[in-house]
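cron nightly-structures :: item 1 of 1
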Amino acid sequence: MSRESRRRTEVGIALAFARRVRERRQEDLCRALGCTQHWISEIELGSKNPSPRTVERILAALEVSPALFAEVVAIVRRLRGEDAGRGREEPAAAAASRPEVCGKSAAGVGDELYVLLAEAILGGMGPRQEDAAQGAAEEARREARARVARLRAYSEVQRRAVVEELAEFQRWAVVEALCDESVEAAAESADAALGLAALAVRAAERIEGSETWRARVQGYSWGFLGNAWRVKGQLPKADDAFVTCRGLWLRGASAEAGWRELLDGARLLELEASLRREQRRLREALALLERALEESRSGRAAVRVLLIRAKTFEELGDYAAVLAVHEELDPLIEYAEPRLLFAHRFNRIVNLCHLGRFAEAEPLLPAVRGLAGSLGGRLHQVRLRWLEARVAAGRGRSAEAITALQGVREAFAGEEMPYDAALVTLELGSLLAERGATAEVKALARGSASVFSSQGVHREARAALEMFRQAAEAETLSVELARRMVAFFYLARYDPERVFEGGR
């Protein structure tokens, strides 16, 4: 590094430190100076050479005396191993061990802040230097999202090579962006979600900084890997991933203040709650969600937590409690992105249907249709069609509902979603039985042999389907029995141990 480059870096680090001591954000400093945040960032990163007059203006805005600033620059020089008599850099480890580095305070500003400065210069602050300035986190996130978007054009092997070889992808914000992409992808493809989460883990293993900061970022990525395994249906692997997640996350709890808060621990509580929900540890899931709600940093985060809480109550069969949670969501929904807004409105209608409140549900459908159209995705459209059919049936329009359910059943079969196909089969059977269409019920049962034998439907549910088939063949399927089977199937999706009690 040239002498001029070293000087720019020293001045930049010293200015960033002075700003932190004064607890000023880059945005505040920009307003005081009438400049852009990018300009300030370049100075603090050492990529721009400020004139003496510019340094004076910055110091005046920060209310830092030139004399104090000169001492800070001198400290920076010592910590960077710039021994004037030798004109070369001393290794960081050696510099850190020198008595004057470990023992002296920075011009009376406090030992704690002096240690923070030392850690920042010696690479212990976690994020790379370009991310280290206060207020740069959002810019880092914007850049990371752009980098991750570039990966979409690559194959899985190419993505892995890029993340492993290119330093610009080995950053905390890239890890966070890959984790977010994994959650987004899960709505359409468990495999895509798993691939993105695995990339996040690889990136987290390679970020620069202290061991505690790296552990923090790794712990975060492992939580999303666990979530992807959950979506994939591999619950033991998901459980193992969350064990790793918790261990790394706790190890990273001692990471430097200011950096450990960059990643949102409430997200990990949300994701683990989703796993506990699928493991039928529902009360444990609700406790995790309560903690996540307390730790939520934004209205958007609270929306996510409340949606998962609503889903947990739905799996408990407490549909009235679900609607109460959706009422809690109403004042927060302005913070929701379209995907979360869709989930809020869609699930409210689902639970109104569970409670037989179809007249309240029907006026809510148009808004959900509009959101489904904006989100795109075949499954969103199929599930919306299914919901419309349920409302139509509840409003007495059985012919309309039957036509819609037939199309929905074919779509689920084509997507290899046997449980959903089985549930729609039972709903169709119930409507046909209500119309007295015995022959059509029998044909439906015979045509659903592949669904009835599918390993994607657990044992107790398959037993209920076989009972449906036998009753259809014997022409003894009553409307009441068919409806009880439908209600059982909605609850048994989340509880494989639930047994259908037959004709009782």
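cron nightly-structures :: done
The two ends are 83 Å apart (CA to CA).
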